[in-house]
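Student: Please help interpret what follows.
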Amino acid sequence: MKRPRLPIMPPHLSTGDTVGVVAPASHIPRANEEYLEQGLERVRQMGFVVKCSPSLLERKHLYLAGKDQERADELMAMFLDSEVKAILCSRGGYGAQRLIPYLDADQIRSHPKPLVGCSDITVLLIYLLQQCLVIPFHGPNVATSQFVQGDAEMALALQRALTSAEPLAEIACSVLRSSEAPGEIIEGEIIGGCLSSLVTVLGTPYEPDLQGKVLFVEDVNEPPYKIDRMLTHLKSAGKLAGVKGVVFGQMPGCDTDNDLLREVLLDVLGAIEGPILFGFPSGHGPRNLTIPLGVPVRIQKGMVSFPREDRSE
């Protein structure tokens, strides 16, 4: 029987390697243009050479950094450029989903590289994992105040994710609900990202397979009722059946009413058998640690760890 193909872990980078920076979604507002150069400088300080796509400061179409075909072509060019070893995104906003019909999954799998981003970039991360079978990385967008003003740990996490195979250190989270068996170890591949982007891929050819997985969910400035609606959408679509556990990010601006958000999460996710954790430091929030998606994670007593396996071909 033919074995199913597993996601590829892209090759690691070395000091002095070139990283490409692309604008797959919204353009950079004029008021935030300074973040681009500051973010690029921070990447250079990590020891990388930076190569920028032409549309980083463009406002060619609507609120986007170029028309869909143009932005897709620039992203594909980075995957096919032998000089570029990893790809970082400038910012999220909206627009990444519009690129997908113009991307070539086979070419991307034939040229696997780390793609790092968050927020609206979530749809590209899911696409890479589900359609291209290439492990993507959920981490900071470089032309943002979060990345420019973030602490040294955030920059170090990005550098390590690109250059090192060593597992991340254990990360402590708040426990909203523990596993039924005290001290039980939960293991499964982690998948997810920004919730408001994650629900938009339902019904597409690249919608996530969550069966037996650990679901990672984060968002920003969404009131509890909207979080409820989106999680209920996932549940109604059958996506939460078989999930081994749920890990929420820091969720800034999503709870302005005395822990109502946590009550909502427990209410909507009551049927899930596994643990529910809160406060994982990736995504929107003061610290956005870079993590791979589609790799095994372990949850025990509120601690999340990444015993990363080698899937390179």
